[in-house]
Amino acid sequence: MDDTAHTLSSARTLWDLVVRRAGLTPDRPVFLQGERSLTFGGLRARAERVAAGLYGRGVRPGTVVAWQLPTRVETAVLSFALARLGAVQTPVIPFYRDREVGFALRKSRAEFFAVPGVLRGFDHTEMARRLGAKNVFEVYEDESLPDGDPAVLPPPPAEGTSVRWIYWTSGTTSDPKGVLHTDRSLLAGGSCLAHALRLSAHDVGSMAFPYAHIAGPDYTVMLLLYGFPAVLFEQFALPDALAEYRRHGVTVAGGSTAFYSMFLAEQRKRPNEKVIPTLRLLAGGGAPKPPELYHSVVHEMGVQLTHGYGMTEVPMITMGAPDDTAENLATTEGRPPEGMEIRIVDGEVRLKGEAVCQGYLDPAQTAEAFDDDGFLRTGDLGHLTGSGHLVLTGRLKDVIIRKGENISAKEIEDLLHAHPAVGDVAVVGLPDAERGERVCAVVEQPAGAARLTLEAVTSYLREAGLSVHKLPEQLEVVDALPRNETLRKVLKYRLRERYSGTVK
Questions:
Q1: Where is each AMP-dependent synthetase/ligase domain found (predicted)?
Q2: Domain boundaries, the chain
Q3: Structural domain 403-499, CATH architecture
C-alpha cells in the first residue's frame, strides 16, 4: 500500500475517507457510467447536498433508511449522503421481491425507502406501497435525488464503530439474516482488498455486480484509498458490456468465478486478439474457483487471476496477491491480511478481526454464530498451508456422507472442471435409503460438446485418481445451472430439491 493510501486507511468513518480523498484529488473521476463521470470532489459535494435534502425530509443520525436501487451513480451518491448523516442504511438487492423486501423492511424497521420506480418492467414503487413501506421516494436519475443546502447539516459522525449498515444474506433456504456492519468493518474489508491487489492510481476498475451487495462498499473503499475510477454496469452481460470495458480502458475486472468463465468464453471466440486490450487482472471471490479455470484464464487471456474469500458477514477474509506463486493462486484463496485471525476448529474455518460483522439483527442468531472465544463460525471447511494460505475444501452442508464415509463435493467438482465437455458442474448429495446419500453430478456443458454419460464421467474420474467410493452414481445434464443474481453462485439447494426424488 502506498503512503497516501496508508494515510487514508486511518479514516474513522466512510465519510471521513470521502473528505480526505476529495481533498487530495478532487478532479479525478471515481465513477464512470455511459457518458457520465463523477469526480471525487463531485461525490463529496453532491452527497452533501443530497444529505441536506434528506435532512429536510426528516432523516437524522440513526434513522433507518432502506434502499433498493440498481448499480448507478445516483445509488452511490445516496449511500454516501446517508453515511454523511450517520443514518442506518439497509441496502436491498434490486431483484428481490415481496417476500424478501417485506421481511427486510419489517425487521429493520425502516422509516424511509428509496426505490427506482419502474425497473426492467417491474414497478418497485407499487410493491413498496403494497408492503406498507413508510416514506417511499423514487431515485431514477440525478435530478430525482433530494437536494438541499449543506449549511443545515449537523456535524458528520465522529466515530465508525456504531452499527450503521444492515446487509441481508441471500435467504435461499430460509428467511434472510440481517447482518450488522459498522463503517470500520467496511473500511477494514476494503482496505484489505486494496492492499492485496497491489493497485495504483493508474488503474481503472469495474463494478459488474449489484452496488447493494456487500461488495459495493468493499470496492468503493478501494477506489477512495487509491484514487482511481470504476466503470459501473447496471446490467452486466457479455458480449454487450465489452464496449464499455474497452472504451474506458479497464485494467481490473471480475466479480466471481462465473464472471471469469464468461470473460474466458469471450476470449475463446477470438483467440488471437485480446478481448479487453488494457486488462491485466481478473479478481473476485464469493464462490469456489477450480484450479483449471485459473490456468485457462492466465494462459488464454494473458492476464493474472487473483481470487479471494469473503461473505456478507466478512467482506474480505483472504485474497490472492498478483505476485503470489501460480500454485498458490490456482489452489488456495490467498492469505489473510494483518488483523484477520483464522482458526480451524474440527475442519471449520472460524474468524476474528475488525472486518467481521457485529452479528445479526436477531440476537439468537448472533449467539449461535459466534463461539465462546468470539470467533465467527463460517460453515466453510478448510485448512491453512505452511505459508499461511487458506485452502477451502467445501462447506459443512456440502459434505456428502455415503455409507458412513465423508466425501467432499468440491474435490469431485475440481476434477470435473478439467473435463473438456464440462462447462460448469455442481456435485450434491441426494437422500438414498441404502447409502444414506448418493453422489449426484449436475453438469452444464459448453456449446457443441458431445453429451456426457455417467459411464464417461466415472471413467474420467477413475483415471484422474478419484477413489471408487467417491464416484458419482447419478449424472444430470442441464442447459444452465441455477444461480443467484449477485455473484452468480450456483444454488445447490435447488438441485437437491429437483433431483431428490429421482433415482438413476
A1: 20-360
A2: 3-184, 403-499
A3: 2-Layer Sandwich (3.30)
CA dihedral angle for residue 16, residue 22, residue 23, residue 24, rounded to 10 degrees:
110
pLDDT digits (tens, 9 = 90+) for 256-282: 888 998 999 999 999 999 999 999 999
Identify the pLDDT of residue 432.
84
The cell for 286 is: 464469493
What pTM was computed for the model? 0.85
Please indicate whether the domains covering 3-184 and 403-499 agree at the CATH topology level.
no
The gap between the terminal CA atoms of the chain, to the nearest Å, is: 54
Instruction: Tell me which DSSP letter residue 171 carries.
Output: -
Which residues, at least 6 apart from 189, have a Cβ–Cβ distance to it below 8 Å?
Answer: 214, 217, 218, 221, 310, 314, 315, 316, 355
pLDDT recorded at residue 170: 67
Which of the residues in the chain have pLDDT under 50?
A: 172-173
**Per the structure block, which three cell numbers stand in for 222?**
478501494
For residue 172, the model assigns a pLDDT of 46
Q: Is 491 helix (H, G, I), strand (E, B) or coil?
A: coil
d(CA 345, CA 316): 20
